Amino acid sequence: MPAARTLQRRPGTPRPPAAPPAPAAKVPSRPTTHLRDAGLLAAAGVAGFGAAPLVGYPGLEVPSLLLGLGGGAALAVTGQRTKLRRELEDKVLEALAPLLGVRHLDRRIVKMTKWTNRWPGLPAKVRIHYAPGAPDSDPMWKSEILAVLDSRMLARYEVARHEPRRCTLWLTLVTKEQTEGKEPPYSQVRAERAITELIGPTAKVTDVELDGEELCSLTVTHQAGAKLAASGYRNRIERVISTMMPGRWRAVWDLEGDEVRFEVRPTLPSSVWLPPRAPEDTEDLLRNYRQVKIPCAIDEDGREILWYPARVPQAMLTGGTGTGKTSTAHVLLGQFTQYGWPAWVLDAKRVEFLDFRTWPNVQIVAGSIPQQVALIRRVWELMEYRYQLIEEGKATVNDFEPLVVFLDEFAEFRSNLFEWYAQIKVKGDPTKPPTLAEVASLARKARTARIHLVLSTQRPDAEFLGGEMRDNFGFRISMGRLSPQGAMMMWENPAVGVSLPRARTGRATATHEDGKPVEVQCYRFPDINADEDSEERQLLESIRPAEARWPRLVIVPPEAQVDLDGGEPTPPTFRDYARAVWDLAENRPDLDPLSGAAGEDAVDGRELSSTMASLGISTSDHPGPCSRPHLRLVDALEQDAAETEQGGGLTWDLDEYVGYAPPVSCAARDLVVGDLIQIEDGAGEWVVVDEPPEEDLAAPGMIAVSWRGDGDESGSISLPDDNYIEVRRPEEDA
Length: 734
Ligand SMILES: Nc1ncnc2c1ncn2[C@@H]1O[C@H](COP(=O)(O)OP(=O)(O)OP(=O)(O)O)[C@@H](O)[C@H]1O
What we know:
This protein is α+β, with helices and mostly antiparallel strands. Adenosine-5'-triphosphate (ATP) binds at residues 12, 271, 319, 321-327, 505-506, 522, 524. Adenosine-5'-triphosphate binds next to helix 8 and strand 22.
């Protein structure tokens, strides 16, 4: 199957993080927006970065909030600042109107000047004209006006001058120096409001950590222990805060101390090389069996994700092309062999493990279907044999030396197998290749025989990995972003792993020690063909097992049976292939591709792979007859082409958001985790919703939507409750 038929952006070529800083989506509003909400919505205007028009007030717009972080760095927000300030004036005007006795909203009534430089800034001066009938002699009148200003602007104002004859009031911003404290960043004000709302009035912020203007953490004490004892409620608080705050947040609860710390989640690195550590006590495979642990990745706190095969015997690895799946499989293989375990590899793609044929303790890499069928049969027989030894009382589980078997690209293997089996099947053979039943049996029972499977596949397909089969693979890693269906298959939760940044190769969801799935960065395995003098090569050499304990093996292809009556020889059957004889590679140099006798050493790879050679044309450098080489891929390609003609098979997809349906309109509150939205309307850059939308507790009438970009930038946007937004949903079968 030809690679790269779609124009999907390859992970590993990250977009520029968080660039350009974007204004919020211009959201079309439904004609039901209530004016009642307008004053409340205006409260959000201080950080309003985008707007939707309010019905009945064409000049007035409802701001949406956008706060963001770019891979840990602030996502500054740009846009039409002047427009936003104008909108803010409009909101304040609307809110003040009842106090000013004005009948018509006129922009000359409230004038804001001398804006501070922040986004969108605060007016240092506010001039208000009011109607002569306004109750300006009422002692409470001015404080009510100030209260409106304070709550709309989230800043303190005071009366600078009052000219009753001209019906004018002048207000000034109370500066930082005047308040003797620092004006808290808007995100802090939002967080504090939400926390008070969620935890109750006893919640007190005791510590705030800022990085410049960016809020990093808030520590809160409270006396709401009883309310917070329920984990469900604590989870909700964590989710609401993470949704409302820019970036990805978490809560660390001290239930005994009645304290909680809300903090920005640490950002996972984009690449972590497998640390070169030689395991200890590898002399006797039986002695250290239970201690064997395979580090695969790190979590956001830098803790290692470890696979203990003695506890969780089988592992499953899923991930699309380019997600780093192969590298992770190499990480596992490299470490098992460091422990001295023998490894057998089924390489369905034929090239992913080719270079491991010379890696110490890798006994065989089966690249062709007949070899793969033979490999699975032998593993299954070994398992059955070990069971028999236990039954006969001749051995116990503790006598078995472990074996690790890699079944790489299992879906690909499965479809190749069906195709091959259809050609080879003879009368009396079962309808389906018995190999699949053998794999299922291994998945169920291999643990007791200390045979450990690492099954990798592009997609966790329900057809062969449903229910019981999948449950046997207790240790799981899903590489890259999942579709909701994939997330259900892997993690039984349609929201897990669906918002992973696509441009981060090696980013994955993995089973943590407590059995729960967490986001991780998988270790990266050095390129096995790294340049001689490179650091990557040094790393590779430090990982390579010092000793090869297990000899390499070859599978002897069965021969056609000669017809003694002189007729056509009978080709080998499935049974012959499955039961093929195995031998030491050193005994059969004729079958060993690495011996040189099989002829592979003698070739010049560059020449052999040249376009000229593939066309069967000889060049002046290499004169002489040149026959067109046999291309094994040709058959497969022809078949793909036939499928495409019939409307199936591969399609050319020019959309880089492959797997997502075209945009449809959706209410902000109906967004679900995994949906794509645009932060900047029409910019074509879609980000993924990573938390269920929540009511914005700091801006009533708004819905907070938390998002994540392909390059791991993240943020939160607040949208008017009843507005519709364009959304792209993962396709059903993606
Ligand atoms: N953990 C990782 N961290 C960072 N980069 C990685 C990681 N793993 C792999 N890469 C890089 O990404 C590229 C693709 O990796 P890999 O071949 O493992 O992906 P894959 O999912 O197996 O893709 P394919 O199915 O096309 O082989 C490699 O060139 C490698 O350099």
